[in-house]
Design brief:
single chain; alpha+beta; 2 strands; elongated
């Protein structure tokens, strides 16, 4: 999500629905916490690793 009328990215969200019915989602509002987009990128990498490593329990 971009700030209205600018190229400034202010929020990001992602979601994936798996065939077993599990839905993994995240949303980030780094500016609300006094962080920069660069600060968020490290956390985003961790979130993507967690999402990609998910395995359902049989």
């Amino acid at each position: 999500m971009y700030e209205v009328g600018t190229d400034t990215l202010v929020n990001e969200f992602g979601s994936v629905s798996l065939s077993d019915g599990t839905r993994l989602s995240f949303m980030s509002h780094w500016q609300e916490h006094g962080l920069t987009y660069e600060d968020y990128l490290a956390d985003r990498e961790i979130l993507l690793q967690v999402m990609s490593s998910y395995r359902s329990d049989p």
